[in-house]
Specification:
The chain is α+β, with helices and mostly antiparallel strands and 242 residues long. The protein is built from eleven helices and five strands; from the N terminus they run αβββββαααααααααα.
């Protein structure tokens, strides 16, 4: 693998919160001496071990598309993850001062470490993570992640991937599961949704993400999410208060 940072921009939009759960309760992280198992959906059928519920934050739902449905790390083959798992097991087993903060930070490190392992294995199902594992496509995807407001053309992205235009389009669709410009729009809308829920003004979001103005942004947002930015913000506020 080269020195291209494939994950920082992606994971910077996750807000990892990790909480221990009782035996039999739904969880999406299991930690044992042998393995770390993580899934996008909470379940009561995870392997035996210390269990936790990992929440990626109130604005993370669209970002789940970039994550595998299930990740399993063999700790015998991953010394760094084994060390994290030991710390995590200790924090989950023995409540101590600062435990809430420690669990959240360990959760962030575990998610990053498991995503790194998935990319290095290169065995992910079609999706953004598979694209990040691809030696050519990864450069184009990282560029999209880092500069979502740029007026990208397929030719620009194909050049970054060192591919012809036709080869790039076909390979991107095969590996990521959608055309490159559709992915660019999806990523832009993911960031827009997060910004809306964080309270950012539509005019500021439009400038940052490359829309001609607040009205153009609001129309694109409504086409994607079926409601205006203000309506989504109000609905999420009501849901949080209930």
């Amino acid at each position: 693998m080269d020195r291209l940072d494939r994950l920082s921009t992606l994971v910077s939009h996750l807000e990892v919160r990790l909480a221990p759960v009782d035996d039999g309760a739904a969880a999406n992280l299991s930690v044992s001496r042998r393995a770390l198992v993580w899934s996008t959906e909470a379940s009561d059928h995870l392997p035996t071990g210390r269990r936790a519920l990992v929440d990626l934050g109130p604005a993370s739902e669209p970002l789940r598309q970039a994550l595998p449905a299930r990740m399993v790390a063999d700790l015998a083959e991953a010394p760094s993850l084994a060390a994290l798992a030991a710390l995590l097991t200790e924090e989950l087993s023995t409540p101590r001062c600062g435990g809430r903060f420690a669990l959240d930070r360990l959760g962030e490190l575990v998610v990053v470490a498991m995503l790194r392992a998935e990319i290095e294995r290169g065995e992910t199902a079609p999706g953004p993570l598979a694209g990040l594992a691809h030696p050519g496509l990864s450069r184009a995807i990282v560029a999209l992640h880092d500069a979502p407001g740029r007026d990208w053309r397929v030719e620009d992205l194909a050049g970054l991937a060192a591919m012809s235009r036709s080869h790039f389009i076909a390979e991107f669709h095969r590996v990521v599961g959608q055309p490159p410009m559709a992915y660019a729009k999806s990523w832009r809308m993911t960031l827009a949704r997060n910004a809306v829920l964080a309270g950012e003004r539509s005019s500021a979001i439009a400038r940052r993400l490359g829309y001609s103005g607040g009205d153009a942004f609001a129309r694109a947002f409504a086409r994607t999410y079926g409601c205006s930015p203000s309506a989504l913000r109000a609905a999420e506020g009501q849901r949080a208060a209930s």
